[in-house]
Amino acid sequence: MRQQLWDKTAIIFAVGIFLTFVAFDVIWCMDTTFASFSFFETYATKIIATLALAGVYALTRCRWAQIVVMALLDVLLVANLMYFRTYYSAIPASSYLEAGNLADFKASVTDSLRWADIVLPLITIATAVMAFRYKTTKRQPLTAVLKWWAAPLAGFALLLTGVNLCKGGFHKSLRSVRQSAYLCSADAPIFSVFGCIWYDITDAAEPITPEKQAEIERWLASQPKHQPADSVTEKRSNLLIVFAESLESWVLEKKVDGKEITPCLNRLLKEKSTLYAPNVLTQVKGGRSIDAQLMICSGLLPLMSGTYSSLYYDNTFYTLQKAMRGLKHSRSYLLTIDKVSTWNQGAVARSFGTDTIISYHDKRIGDASFFQQCREKIERGEVWKPGESVYMQFVTYSGHAPFKLPDHLRTITFPASIPEKAADYMTTAHYTDKAIGDFVAYLKTLPQYKETIVVIVGDHEGLASYRQELVGNPACRGLVSDKQLTPFIVLNSPVGMRYDKFMGQIDIYPTLLNLMQLDAYRWHGLGQSILDPRKQGVAVGSVMNVEGTGSDKEVERLKEAHTVSDYMLRYDWLKRLD
To answer: Which end of the chain is more exposed for a tag (fewer CB within 10 A), N or C?
Structure first.
């Protein structure tokens, strides 16, 4: 009976599926750590998933049905590998419903593929060829199925459950992996993609517990109290923030072959009224650009898994936009190249307190054309009307991966020894630098500029999985940074300074509260102003990576902030301030 249920064809399919999971883990771990292979769960989840998926043939005796299942599995796993190379995590359960966003990022999607990914479909093809070499046996009685297929499946599932219970349960076990500095990117190999999806679904449905509530309150009580900065004496009425797509700090103040990569920004950095912090650690997660807006505008860290913009866009948020409106009677504008539907940006903007949204749907216009159109709208009085105090937010696009500019927009060349990806990135940075520089030059001609702060930030790092390759290239030595750092530039700042210590993106929000003298606002965020002398020069990134120097207590507090912010978003904690 056993040989009939698990005939040669069934065994071939089972082996093929198991090898597909193993290949996925190996490819995934090549960009992170192979530590996951030392966990019992890594093997147990693969055996369980293999038995479950191989059951299609065991139950139906239809080879084509099993092949279709394997092909769909390949699509799922390759998609997660592509996602991981940018976001360093498996695809959150909620993000599968946002696949439509990819229509605007086809070039980036293609750029995320690697030759190693072809191994998965090749295993499926080889398995199919071998499976058709043998005859199919007839279906077996239900008792045989239960004995030789369902029983082992249930047995391994119970064993895995027991192991997880010893670690506090499935949710606690997976959460501890995600919060580990060394294993946070190993959740998919250890618990499988299916385990990650199940965790996201079930965790989102859990109500807040007294323990979580106490954890939030304890952390907030331990946070250094926000205070006005004594050095800020000049008042500013307008706040303009440029979110420069994928702009990293290492391109600033650098020359290649005698050419400045960002000459315009470099000149602005030398002005006495400029505040510049080059070592801002990227802390975005699955939402990327929209996560940057969350941190900088509202002082909250992103969800541990999933995107707040789709799950909790209608939460109560306390933001720079609302602070400007309440304390300076300002009007808020959002000007973006993205569609308002991308990452649900339109709904988020409304929740943040934005009054007017202007979206440019054609990404082919590029950053230079985008800023030119923004200038024209200011000149015509469509935005920033005379006598109006404003918060204005500009979101660029040209810096998006794969950093391929049309030939007519390329205004700089680099030596042939520079790797293509690095050259493309620097070429794009040079183009965006000129676009921003021209726009700032125009702003300086406006009479209201003297009362205006202009902030330029990189929304997140850009090189993603290419970083390690480029850092190891001799031509990029001393050029490309091995860290995920973005710039924080404040022009016409009431405090001119250079802050070379490490800080997180989460620290920008309270710093801007200081600079704009919005300290009376009721929400000061989870970060700490760099104008606060108590601030330690340390930050914890999105994958629990620690950069800078700080006490063990402070590092632990900053790590806990990611979990605390996750809870605050999930349970709409800030609504309590109402």
So the answer is: C
